[in-house]
Design brief:
This protein is α+β, with helices and mostly antiparallel strands. Helix content is 18%, strand content 42%. The chain has one domain: SH3 type barrels (Roll).
Length: 74
C-alpha cells in the first residue's frame, strides 16, 4: 500500500521508500524512514499534496513523492 492511499487521520508505519538518493536523503533529514510511524494530518483536493506528521515534525509532500512511500496501516 502506498501513502497516497491514506486519508486524513490514518496512521501507518513506513515499510520502504522507492526514491532516488537525493529524495531519500531529504526525507531522512525530516525523520521519514523505514520503521517510523506517521499520521496523515491533511490532504489537498485530489490529494495533490499531503501533510504528514512523523514524530513531532510536520511535512508536506507532493503526490509523486508520497507515491514512492510504501506503508502498512496501524
Amino acid at each position: 500500500m502506498r501513502l497516497t492511499e491514506l486519508s486524513k487521520g490514518d496512521k501507518a508505519v513506513i515499510i520502504k521508500i522507492y526514491a532516488d538518493k537525493a529524495l531519500k536523503d531529504r526525507l531522512t533529514s525530516f525523520g521519514v524512514m523505514r520503521g517510523e510511524e506517521l499520521i496523515v494530518k491533511g490532504c489537498s483536493i485530489a490529494k495533490q499534496t499531503m501533510e504528514i506528521e512523523v514524530g513531532s515534525t510536520l511535512i508536506a509532500l507532493r503526490k509523486d513523492e508520497a507515491a514512492k512511500i510504501e506503508i502498512k496501516t496501524i
